[in-house]
Structure formats: structure tokens, C-alpha cells
């Protein structure tokens, strides 16, 4: 244990407005939701922020519901909540799959979707699923609220469009109103309690409306735009042949920019991206 | 900075005067003197520190004390009813589920939680339910045996 | 007369405490007034310490600081084999994380800040991180040639065989990586010390090792040093020699502070600073005739000992003796060396060198089989050792050994033939390819060679006022069931009930030196002494006329009480003496290396995903002959736990070194198997009682570590359908497997 509890303050405001008011002070507050990222940094003596604000008690940030043409999910929704929700299973099946493949029970009971997004790790598991569901994120501050397209949320390694005075309050994905095919596969360091080495998520709606996202192969989770375009046109033309798959896979591999790190190598990530992409595309041929 | 943290621990109302960022694990071990909850890694990976908080298992090494304010907590010391062992505990003894015993408190808690969620878990559900608890001694086989046996015991005692 | 206890899975003694959280481990103990202690360590792998400074912002006057200057130079070494490792480095820094300073204070957090505020002025020196560079003396970092120890073992005339024209020569090179023990309880001790005495409580395997190290450090009379083992949360060898160091550290701080000092490592420190399994490299040259008879083996085995000698010679010895396996070969030459590098000292870990050399051998055996066109099992059947044959050390196998039947039964339990046939048929069309493979091996029980003779272990038994028998031994319960086994053995020997026997907590002020808890010796060697000491109590009672056979447990209890009331203390001691006809020559490294061996065949079924390059063990059969099984549940638990560690060794556990420091010293990126990663582990015993073991038992603890890695990699080779150089190393991670998979897939595409 290398963190010092005395070196940090932590407050638990009673409601969202009080939390936002504290953030508006601009004193460098760090938000603490389920703590499964923040407390790990604390344990290792790497938590630099002196002031912390707990939001775990803000029940207004919980809840999964359909609102108009969207499924909205509160920022404090845990992996367990996602797995147990029939609405998520119906409207965001890749998100449910991703939640099931995350960590293990105790972490899933505490880790939140808001924390997973805000933590902005390129190896996070929910983001690739959120990307293929056309997710939007609602950011709120004392001065107002805004919806941002999640595809533009991450701007670089661990950087986002979120301002220091803002909180993620919820996310939303469009309801599934037409048959959708989807694919999710995470390759981790082992079969449970594992951080991703490569993650691929994909969805195809209305026959040729395609989303493909990669995790762990670039500084942020990314949409594979070129692959999406090529796959969409191949599907639209009814021409997704094995040859087309090979061509698109090659484009996809070029789109990924994996690196070497302590968990794996760029070479491995590149080859697995290739193989998984092929497996993913072949599943859409069938 | 210190805060007042009030919670129910194993059925007893407790109040602790601790830094709000103190880990629940340390509060339980050092303030409440409940040393059955173990630290194996401090980073949420090993599960030795597992406790039940408001009906769900959590890694107490990752819970800041302030977030436990107002909660209901069960630790390994609260699993047996007096001198009567919980079925999971009894089965761990009879089936060799505990060797060195360091993972055991967390493992027992995770197993109790699993059996409250799933009455008659199959092999995969058992494996999944315990995947956050690393045991270096047993190779898990005897732990699976114990959990199956506990499920049987619980099913046969109303 | 109570039912026989041996062979029955009686409930273990510490069970209730462990499942209720009542068991007290070292970090659960509190002492009023205690300070915490921390270690400040070398940031470099090799260098010269020119100075130390203490940055501002820390109340240094409140902090107890101990450096090498506080220890008389001639005492600044951990007493072990060659006494080369200092408790604290003075000027020479020989590995990353080497202890340099010790700090103590009541406030843990202040201490953490202080640790970060110590500045070292260091002149960096060239360091050395691999075996070949060490052999090439590039540079010399230890002694004259970097060699801690060398053994040369010869049998027959190897060179003459290799000169023959009628043989096929098969060569191969194999290597294994470091492995972290990763017991769930980190190292920790509490020390109380003054000028006249030292007491240490701690998580440890060998109280008398620590006792010896503290004797050396403080130069006090032996009875002024007391070492007590507290409940220990796993060891696997990792708490064999290392606790001597941390115990010395805590005692140094306690003595200077005049207060108890508690030193508990956190996971990050335990992983980067303490011992790991020795990395190894084995080269094989084998001469085999066309019909598959192996006529000569030439083996070159090297282990990376790290920066200090510590236990490397002993680890090397076991690795050497097991290097030629359970085969009868007339001509053998083994050259074995332990070399110095700038890694933290590598140390004891379950198997002790044997898993390393057996990995090389059992991978190589499959290569030899291919070279002569035999199946892996046919080659082994042709060459297995049997009663009347001699091992590589010229040891005559006196007891019956039936490796062919062990092999056949293991393969049958694993459904080997049917699976091979099915996988060969199904693999070509599938992206997940399956394979089945095995390893056959043996493991010596007890200390090597004359080890047990020199050790001359002692076990005591006493009668208690309640009429019970109390076993006194320094052998530790570290999760493997020592207390339960000793109770069974003593109760069985005396015809008593389970509750009539208790086992004393290992405390050097109370228990005699029954030797370290290592080397699969506790049940077989120490257990035999427990049996003798217990029988000694009976004999005393009979001679005193207080007991006559047959008797009931009640009569026995009454006799004990009466003896204590009328005569006084009731005590019996038993000391080891080697069974007749055991001879060993340390010079030529010849003779009876071990009193006996356990024999085994392990079979792994593996699924290899060619999309992700992940290999997964789907089924595991572990069949062994370990003499009589005293406690079936504990025995199977030992095997299952060892197999899981072996699976980790084979597929997951990769120490990432950067500049001689473990870079992945965290649970999140040093990967051990979870409950969803281990297969069904199916354990079988062939029971052949060993006449010199207690109730016929042999050792069991280390054996299961030997077989998994070669069995698994042999299975992967089968799944791939062809050999590949990547398969010569463990851990075999997906990152290494990808070349094997892709090379073979593309070769197959070309040929199609
Ligand atoms: C053992 C273990 C296993 C794990 N396994 C996985 C895994 O498999 N896959 C995976 O993706 N992750 C994994 N994680 C990481 C972690 O659990 C997730 O990222 C989790 O979703 C974080 O949520 P949290 O609420 O715990 O975040 P916290 O730790 O509370 O916060 C994380 C970050 O997000 C910020 N934040 C939190 N909520 C908000 C909000 N509403 N608005 C703005 N900022 C916010 C915080 O300030 C902080 O910077 C694992 C962690 C551990 C300890
Ligand atoms: S100590 Fe909390 S999970 Fe390991
Ligand atoms: S029993 Fe030792 S870690 Fe599980």
C-alpha cells in the first residue's frame, strides 16, 4: 500500500447539482465513481489528485431506460447492471457481451460505464461496443449540459473532449428497430480478470449499415472507418466474397496502429487484429 | 481530514473516525479488528479482500471508507451463525477447499454470493463466480468440489 | 482400537480457523508500540554506491535508519551455503532492488514518503542478464568465471558411443523462464530485539534457516535467538531462504529502535525483490539406435542463479540428477552449471531445478521419437528404467518400478489413442486445433545425496497433562497439511484417536530441528521420525509399567497422565539415520541420490486457437506412484495445486525483465491461471508402499510441478502437427506461439 489516505480529501455530495458546483470551483477535483481505476492508482502511490469527489451515492446517475428512440444508461450503471438488464440485451447486445467479458464479479459490481469511458484507456472493453452502437454521451456541468457523439469523444491517448468541470451523466444508444447482426470478441491475457490485448466489436444493420471498432490497437479505442466503408459497399452490392474479405482485412490491419507494451507486442496485436477481423467478416458472409 | 463512517458490519452498528480515502480493507482490519479479510494484492485482482457490501461482493481494497458510509457489510467473520458453520465453510473443510487459507475468506464469500444468486450452479457458473479470486494452492479443483457440495447441502436444508 | 487413520481424509486441523477468518497470519498480529519497517533498494542492476543523501521534507530525526555501517562487516552476510549475500549492500550493488537501507517509524505513510526521499549517488557498472553472456564472462561479475557451481556426472563412455556408426544423433536446445511463486500472503515478519536476544515471528518455511542466519548476524548464543512460524499463507519455496533476509532486517531495526518492528512487503515489493524460479537452458545430444534404444545422453544444463549464490548449488543439483529422467541409459554425461547474472538471486520454487531439466528432457524425448519414427510412447516404453537398473548417478533401483504400466494407465485414463486419432482427423478443417501429449518423469524424495545424513533431523514427542501426545517438529504447515499428516502418522502408530495428538507450533525455543520444509521430505523423512518419536512415548510408558498392549486410547491417556504425575516430564526424541545401504559420493556425484523416487506420467489435452494463438489446457490426467497415500484429499490437493502452477509455468507466467528488474511486478500483468483457466485436473494414484516411509509413504510436494510444462508443449506440438523452434521454451505465450501457428499454416497452404 503506497498511497496515503491522509494526503487526499474525499467528499460525497448529496446530489448532482452539489457535485457539479464543486467541480465548477475548478480546484482540480477528481471524480470517484466505483473506484476500480482510481483506487488502483491510489494503492500504487500514483494518485496525484489531492481532492476527490465521490459520485457513487448519486442515484440519479443510475438507471437504464428507453427514452423516445433511445436507450439511456446512467453513468453509474455497473457491469453487473448491464448484464442483468433485458433492455441492454435487446438494444445493445454487444455492450452486454462486452460487460460479461469484463473482469470478474466483484469488479463488475463496482466498475461503472461512466468510469470506463472517462478513464479513457485504449484497452477498455465497453468503448468498442459503445462505438458500434452509435453511442452519445451526455456531459453536464454547472453551466449546462451537452450531448457529444462518442465517436469523437477520445481525442488522443487518455485525452477526451470532456472539460474538468464536466461529468458524464448518462449515455444513450439508438433503439434497435431493425434486425441487427453483431460480433464481439476480446482477446485478453487469460479467460477472466484480464485486460484486453485486442478487442473487436462490429454491428451490421439493415443489411449494410456497418460499424466496426477496435480496442487496444491504437492510442484510443477507434472506429475502423475504411473497413466500415468498404464492407458497407461490398454488402450493399451483395458482393462480400472471400476475396473481398481478404482485401478488406488488409485495409483493416493498416488502420490499426498497435504498440509493444508489457502485456503484448505490436506484432501479435497486428496479427490477431487481422485474424479476428477475418473471423468477424466471415461471420457476416454466412 | 477524517470523516465519520457509520455502517453495519456483520449485524453490528459501527462507527469509524477515519480518513475518507482510507481503504475499507484497512478499516475492517485495523479499526474493527476483523483480520479475516485479507490483502493479497491491493489492486482488485486477487479477491482475498472480498466482502459483501449492500448485498453485492466487492473488493474491499478498492472501496474508500466514505463510500461504505450507510452500508451493510458482511465479512468472513459474519458468515457462520455463531458456532454453526455456513454450508460453504463446512464443505470447504470436508473437501479440502482451503490449503494455506489466504484466499479462503474471499473465496468463501464469493462462493456464498454465488450460491445466493444461483441456487444450483453448473460447472461454468462456479468457475465464473470465482474467477475474481485467485488461489495459488489448490488448483481450484477441491474448491469446485466444495461449492458443489455446499449447493447440495443448502438444497437439502430448508 | 480406533479405525486406521492413514489412508483416510480426516478433516484438517486448521480447517475451521481458516474458513472463518480466525487464523492469524503475520499481518494480523499487532504489538503495542510497534514500528513499521521498510527497505530502500538499489535502483540499478549493478553499480557502486558513492553516497546517500536524505532529501528535505521528511522529519529524518524521527526515523530509525539502518545501513551496512550498523553491521560489523564480518557479520554482514546471510548464513547459507557460501555466505556471499549481504544483509545490506555496503558499496557493491549487484542487482536491482538489492537492499541498501532500512527505515522504521510508527507512521507507515510517513515512512513511504521517507523511502521516496532517499537519494543514492551511484556509479553504474555494466550488468549481465543472460546465461550465455555469463558463460562468456562478458563481463566477470562473480568470482573468477561467474560460475557458482559446476557438477560433472558421468556414466559409461559417452564419447565412444557418439563415435559409433550405427547410431542416430539427435540434438536439441530448450529453455525455461523465471517464475514467481506468487503465494497469496506476501513475505512478512515481526521482530523484537535488544543487545541480548532476538525474537522473530514470521511467515516462513524453515525456522532453523532463519535461526542460523540470525545467529550469524548477531553472534548471540543459540538460545537467545527465537524464531516462531506464524500461520503461513503459501510458500512453494518462496519462503525457504528469503525470510532469513527480511527477518534480519526487521531485527536490525528493532534492535536500533528498541521497539518491535513489523515488516510486511506489499505485492509490488514482494514480486520485484524476492526470489523466483531459476531460468534455465538445457542442450541435449542423444545417441539412439534405429530401433529406438537410447545408448547415450550428453546433457549440458545451465541455470541463472542471479547475483548471489544462495541456494543455487542445491537447485542445480536436483536439476542435474533429474536431467536424464526415468530411463535406463548406459552412457550418460551431464555437465551442469549455475552461473551469476545481475538478476535478483533466484531461489527455491517447488521442484527445485527438476522442472527445468525435465522440461528439456521430455521435449527432447519426443524429438528423438520422431527421429527414429516411433510414437512418443513407444520410445519411452523401450527405454524406461526398471527394478535392477541404474540411474544416471549409478543408483541401483532396488524397489519395484513399473513405468510401463503407469504410462499405459495414464494414457488410458486420458483416452489418448482415441483422441489422437480424432484430432488427426478433425484438426485440418478447424481453426481450433487439438492435441494430446504427455511427459513421464520421476522425482526424488528428501534431500539429495548425503543431505539427510548431514542434516540429522530430530523430532520430539511429549506427553501433555491432558494425556495427549504432542509432536515437536520444526516442519511447517504452509497449507500443504503437515499438521494433519503428522497427527495421522502419530495417532496411527500409537493406535490413538485423531484428537489425542496435537502438533506444536514451530518455535525454535520449543521444537527441535527437524530440518527445512522443502524437497518433498516432510511426510517421508520427518513423518518417519514422527512415527518413531511417538512410538518412543509408548515404549517409555510400557517400560515404566504403566501400559501394556493391547490398550485402548483411554488407557493410553491415563498412562500418560500417571507418568507425568508420578515420574515427571514425558519426552521422546528420534533422530534420522539413513536406511541401510544408502551411499553417496559428493566428489564423483555418484550413488544413491535419493532414498527413493516418486514416479509419474502426466497427460495434457490442449486446444490451440489459430485465430488468437492461445493454447488452453482442456483436460489433464496426473497419474503417480507416491508410495502409500496417507491423506487422499490432501494428496490430491497437492497434485492439483502443483499442476495448476505447472500450467502457469507452461503457458501464462512470464516475467518481463527490464534492465534486470521485473517490469510486470503486479497481479494485473503477471498472469496466473484463474478458476476459468484451469481444466479438470484428474488425479490418480498407484499405491506401492515404500518400506522406509511412515506407513509406506513417499514425498509428493514437488512432483506435480515437473510434468505439466513438457506434457502441455508436447500436446501443442501434436496440435500443430509438426515441430517448431518456438516450442523449445516456456512460458509459451500466444506471442511466441503465433510464429509457430502462422509458419505451419502457410507451409500447409503452400503444399496444398
Ligand atoms: C481487477 C480489475 C479488472 C478490470 N478489468 C477490466 C476489464 O476487463 N475491462 C475494462 O475495460 N476495464 C477493466 N478494469 C478497469 C475498471 O474496472 C473500469 O475501467 C471501470 O469501468 C471503471 O469504472 P469506475 O466507476 O470504477 O471508475 P473510477 O475508478 O471511479 O474512475 C475512473 C476514471 O473515470 C473518472 N470518472 C468516473 N466516473 C465519471 C463520470 N461519471 N464522469 C466523469 N468522470 C468520471 C474518474 O475521475 C477516473 O478518472 C478492471 C479493473 C480492475 C481493478
Ligand atoms: S487485496 Fe483486494 S483484490 Fe487483492
Ligand atoms: S489456499 Fe492458499 S491461496 Fe488458496
Number of domains of chain A: 3
- Give the N-to-C terminal Cα separation of chain B: 48 Å
User: Biggest interface in this structure?
Assistant: B-C, 54 and 56 residues
Work out the number of β strands of chain B: 5
The CATH architecture of the largest domain in chain A can be given as 2-Layer Sandwich
Q: Determine the N-to-C terminus distance of chain A.
A: 52 Å
Uncertain ranges of chain A: none
Write down the CATH class of the largest domain in chain A: Alpha Beta
What does this 3D model show about the protein?
The complex is a heterotrimer of chains A (286), B (158) and C (752). In chain A, the strands form 4 sheets. A 5-stranded antiparallel beta sheet of chain A has the order 4-5-10-6-7. In chain A, strands 11-12-13-14 form a 4-stranded antiparallel beta sheet, with helices on both faces. Chain A has 286 residues and is an alpha+beta fold. Chain A is globular. The mean pLDDT of chain A is 95. Chain A contains 11 helices and 14 strands. In chain A, 35% of the residues lie in helices and 25% in strands. By secondary structure, chain B is an alpha+beta fold. Chain B folds into 2 domains: 3-78, Ubiquitin-like (UB roll) (Roll), CATH 3.10.20.30; 87-156, Orthogonal Bundle (DNA polymerase, domain 1), CATH 1.10.150.120. The termini of chain B are far apart. The model of chain B has no long low-confidence stretch (mean pLDDT 97). Chain C has 752 residues and is an alpha+beta fold. Chain C has 3 domains: 15-22 and 457-575, Aldehyde Oxidoreductase, domain 4 (2-Layer Sandwich); 31-125 and 182-273, Aldehyde oxidase/xanthine dehydrogenase, molybdopterin binding domain (Aldehyde Oxidoreductase, domain 4); 280-448 and 591-751, 2-Layer Sandwich (Aldehyde Oxidoreductase, domain 4), CATH 3.30.365.10. In chain C, 31% of the residues lie in helices and 24% in strands. Chain C has 20 helices and 28 strands. Chain C has a 7-stranded mixed beta sheet with strand order 3-5-1-12-9-10-11, with helices on both faces. Chain C has a 6-stranded mixed beta sheet with strand order 7-15-14-13-8-28. Chain C has a 4-stranded mixed beta sheet with strand order 16-23-24-27, with helices on both faces. The longest helix of chain C is centred in the C-terminal third of the chain and has 22 residues, at 522-543. In chain C, 62% of the residues are buried. The model of chain C has no long low-confidence stretch (mean pLDDT 96). Chains in contact: A-B, A-C, B-C. Chains A and C meet through helix 11 of A and helix 2 and helix 20 of C. The complex binds flavin-adenine dinucleotide and FE2/S2 (inorganic) cluster (2 copies). One FE2/S2 (inorganic) cluster sits between chains B (98-104, 135-138) and C (184, 234, 479).
Amino acid at each position: 500500500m503506497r498511497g496515503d489516505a491522509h494526503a487526499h480529501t474525499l467528499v460525497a455530495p448529496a446530489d448532482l447539482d452539489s457535485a457539479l458546483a464543486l467541480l465548477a470551483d475548478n480546484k482540480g477535483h477528481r471524480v470517484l465513481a466505483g473506484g476500480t481505476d482510481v483506487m488502483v492508482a491510489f494503492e500504487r502511490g500514483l494518485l496525484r489528485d489531492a481532492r476527490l469527489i465521490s459520485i457513487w451515492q448519486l442515484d440519479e446517475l443510475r438507471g437504464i431506460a428507453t427514452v423516445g428512440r433511445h436507450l439511456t444508461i446512467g453513468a453509474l450503471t455497473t457491469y453487473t447492471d448491464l448484464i442483468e438488464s433485458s433492455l441492454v440485451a435487446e438494444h445493445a447486445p454487444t455492450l452486454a457481451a462486452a460487460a460479461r467479458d469484463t473482469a470478474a464479479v466483484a469488479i463488475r459490481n463496482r466498475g461503472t460505464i461512466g468510469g470506463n469511458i472517462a478513464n479513457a484507456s485504449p484497452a477498455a472493453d465497453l468503448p468498442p461496443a459503445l462505438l458500434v452502437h452509435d453511442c452519445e454521451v451526455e456531459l453536464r456541468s454547472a453551466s449546462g449540459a451537452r450531448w457529444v457523439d462518442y465517436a469523437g469523444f477520445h481525442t488522443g491517448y487518455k485525452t477526451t473532449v470532456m472539460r474538468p468541470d464536466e461529468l458524464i451523466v448518462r449515455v444513450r444508444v439508438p433503439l434497435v428497430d431493425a434486425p441487427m447482426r453483431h460480433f464481439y470478441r476480446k482477446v485478453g491475457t487469460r479467460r477472466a480478470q484480464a485486460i484486453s490485448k485486442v478487442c473487436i466489436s462490429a454491428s451490421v444493420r439493415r443489411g449494410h449499415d456497418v460499424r466496426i471498432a477496435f480496442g487496444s490497437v491504437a492510442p484510443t479505442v477507434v472506429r475502423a472507418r475504411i473497413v466500415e466503408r468498404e464492407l458497407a459497399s461490398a454488402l450493399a452490392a451483395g458482393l462480400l466474397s472471400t476475396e473481398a474479405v481478404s482485401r478488406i482485412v488488409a485495409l483493416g490491419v493498416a488502420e490499426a496502429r498497435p504498440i509493444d507494451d508489457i502485456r503484448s507486442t505490436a506484432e501479435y496485436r497486428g496479427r490477431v487484429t487481422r485474424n479476428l477481423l477475418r473471423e468477424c467478416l466471415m461471420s457476416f458472409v454466412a | 481530514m477524517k470523516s465519520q463512517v457509520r455502517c453495519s458490519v456483520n449485524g453490528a452498528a459501527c462507527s469509524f473516525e477515519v480518513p475518507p480515502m482510507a481503504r475499507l480493507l484497512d478499516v475492517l482490519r485495523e479499526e474493527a479488528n476483523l483480520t479475516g479479510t485479507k490483502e493479497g494484492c491491493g489492486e482488485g485482482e486477487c479477491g482475498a479482500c472480498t466482502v459483501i457490501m449492500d448485498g453485492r461482493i466487492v473488493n474491499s481494497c478498492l472501496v474508500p471508507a466514505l463510500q461504505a458510509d450507510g452500508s451493510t457489510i458482511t465479512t468472513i467473520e459474519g458468515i457462520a451463525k455463531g458456532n454453526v458453520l455456513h454450508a460453504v465453510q463446512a464443505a470447504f473443510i470436508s473437501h479440502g477447499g482451503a490449503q494455506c487459507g489466504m484466499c479462503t475468506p474471499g473465496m468463501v464469500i464469493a462462493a456464498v454470493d454465488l450460491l445466493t444468486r444461483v441456487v444450483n450452479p453448473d460447472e461454468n457458473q462456479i468457475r465464473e463466480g470465482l474467477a475474481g479470486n485467485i488461489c495459488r494452492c489448490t488448483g481450484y479443483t477441491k474448491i469446485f468440489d466444495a461449492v458443489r457440495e455446499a449447493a447440495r447441502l443448502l438444497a437439502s436444508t430448508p | 482400537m480406533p479405525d486406521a487413520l492413514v489412508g483416510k481424509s480426516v478433516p484438517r486441523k486448521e480447517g475451521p480457523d481458516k474458513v472463518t477468518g480466525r487464523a492469524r497470519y503475520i499481518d494480523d498480529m499487532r504489538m503495542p508500540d510497534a514500528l513499521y519497517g521498510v527497505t530502500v533498494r538499489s535502483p540499478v542492476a549493478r553499480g557502486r554506491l558513492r553516497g546517500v543523501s536524505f532529501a528535505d521534507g521528511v522529519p529524518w530525526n524521527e526515523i530509525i535508519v539502518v545501513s551496512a555501517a550498523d553491521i560489523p562487516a564480518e557479520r554482514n552476510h546471510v548464513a547459507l551455503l557460501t555466505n556471499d549475500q549481504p544483509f545490506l549492500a555496503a558499496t557493491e550493488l549487484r542487482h536491482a532492488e538489492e537492499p541498501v537501507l532500512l527505515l522504521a517509524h510508527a507512521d507507515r505513510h510517513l515512512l513511504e514518503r521517507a523511502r521516496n526521499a532517499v537519494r543514492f549517488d551511484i556509479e553504474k557498472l555494466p550488468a549481465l542478464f543472460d546465461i550465455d553472456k555469463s558463460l562468456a564472462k562478458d563481463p566477470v561479475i562473480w568470482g573468477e568465471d561467474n560460475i557458482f557451481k559446476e557438477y560433472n556426472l558421468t556414466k559409461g563412455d559417452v564419447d565412444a558411443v557418439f563415435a559409433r556408426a550405427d547410431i542416430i544423433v539427435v540434438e536439441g536446445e530448450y529453455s525455461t523462464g523465471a517464475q514467481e511463486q506468487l503465494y497469496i500472503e506476501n513475505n512478512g515478519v515481526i521482530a523484537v530485539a535488544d543487545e541480548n536476544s532476538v525474537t522473530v515471528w514470521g511467515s516462513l518455511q524453515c525456522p532453523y534457516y532463519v535461526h542460523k542466519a540470525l545467529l550469524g548476524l548477531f553472534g548471540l548464543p543459540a538460545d537467545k535467538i527465537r524464531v516462531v512460524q506464524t500461520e503461513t499463507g503459501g510458500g512453494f519455496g518462496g519462503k525457504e531462504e528469503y525470510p532469513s533476509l527480511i527477518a534480519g532486517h526487521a531485527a536490525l531495526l528493532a534492535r536500533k529502535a528498541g521497539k518491535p518492528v513489523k515488516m510486511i512487503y506489499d505485492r509490488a515489493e514482494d514480486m520485484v525483490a524476492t526470489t523466483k524460479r531459476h531460468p534455465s537452458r538445457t542442450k541435449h545430444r542423444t545417441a539412439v539406435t534405429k530401433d529406438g534404444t537410447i545408448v547415450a545422453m550428453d546433457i549440458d544444463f545451465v541455470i541463472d542463479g542471479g547475483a548471489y549464490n544462495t541456494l543455487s548449488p542445491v537447485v542445480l543439483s536436483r536439476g542435474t540428477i533429474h536431467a536424464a529422467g526415468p530411463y535406463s541409459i548406459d552412457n550418460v554425461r551431464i555437465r551442469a552449471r549455475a552461473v551469476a547474472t545481475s538478476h535478483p538471486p533466484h531461489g527455491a520454487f517447488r521442484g527445485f531445478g527438476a522442472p527445468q531439466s525435465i522440461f528439456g528432457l521430455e521435449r527432447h524425448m519426443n524429438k528423438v521419437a520422431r527421429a527414429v519414427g516411433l510414437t512418443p510412447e513407444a520410445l519411452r516404453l523401450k527405454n524406461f528404467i526398471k527394478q535392477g537398473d541404474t540411474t544416471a548417478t549409478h543408483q541401483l533401483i532396488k524397489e519395484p518400478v513399473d513405468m510401463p504400466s503407469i504410462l499405459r494407465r495414464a494414457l488410458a485414463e486420458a483416452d489418448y489413442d482415441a483422441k489422437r486419432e480424432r484430432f488427426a482427423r478433425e484438426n485440418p478443417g478447424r481453426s481450433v486445433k487439438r492435441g494430446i501429449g504427455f511427459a513421464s518423469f520421476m522425482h526424488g524424495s528428501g534431500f539429495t545425496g548425503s543431505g539427510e545424513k548431514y542434516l540429522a533431523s530430530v523430532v520430539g514427542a511429549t506427553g501433555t497433562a491432558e494425556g495427549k501426545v504432542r509432536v515437536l517438529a520444526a516442519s511447517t504447515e504452509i497449507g500443504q497439511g503437515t499438521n494433519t499428516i503428522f497427527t495421522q502418522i502419530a495417532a496411527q502408530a500409537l493406535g490413538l484417536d485423531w484428537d489425542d495428538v496435537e502438533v506444536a507450533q514451530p518455535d525454535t525455543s520449543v521444537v527441535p530441528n527437524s530440518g527445512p520444509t522443502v524437497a518433498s521430505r516432510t511426510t517421508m523423512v520427518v513423518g518417519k521420525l514422527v512415527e518413531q518419536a511417538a512410538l518412543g512415548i509408548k515404549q517409555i510408558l510400557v517400560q515404566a509399567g504403566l501400559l501394556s498392549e493391547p490398550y485402548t486410547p483411554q488407557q493410553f491417556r491415563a498412562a500418560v497422565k500417571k507418568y507425568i504425575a508420578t515420574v515427571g516430564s514425558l519426552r521422546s526424541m528420534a533422530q534420522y539415520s539413513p536406511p541401510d545401504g544408502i551411499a553417496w559420493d559428493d566428489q564423483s556425484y555418484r550413488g544413491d541420490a535419493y532414498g527413493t523416487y516418486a514416479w509419474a506420467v502426466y497427460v495434457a489435452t490442449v486446444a490451440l486457437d489459430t485465430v488468437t494463438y492461445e493454447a488452453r489446457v482442456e483436460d489433464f490426467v496426473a497419474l503417480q506412484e507416491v508410495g502409500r497415500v496417507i491423506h487422499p484429499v490432501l494428496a490430491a490437493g497437492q497434485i492439483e495445486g502443483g499442476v495448476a502452477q505447472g500450467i502457469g509455468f507452461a503457458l501464462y507466467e512470464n516475467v518481463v525483465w527490464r534492465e534486470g528488474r521485473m517490469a510486470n511486478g503486479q497481479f494485473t500483468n503477471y498472469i496466473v491461471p484463474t478458476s476459468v483457466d484451469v481444466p479438470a485436473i484428474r488425479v490418480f494414484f498407484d499405491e506401492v508402499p515404500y518400506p522406509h516411509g511412515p506407513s509406506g509413504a513417499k514425498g509428493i510436494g514437488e512432483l506435480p510441478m515437473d510434468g505439466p510444462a513438457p506434457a502441455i508443449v508436447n500436446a501443442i506440438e501434436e496440435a500443430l502437427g509438426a515441430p517448431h523452434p518456438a516450442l523449445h521454451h516456456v512460458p509459451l505465450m500466444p506471442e511466441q506461439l503465433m510464429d509457430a501457428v502462422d509458419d505451419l499454416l502457410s507451409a500447409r497452404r503452400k503444399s496444398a
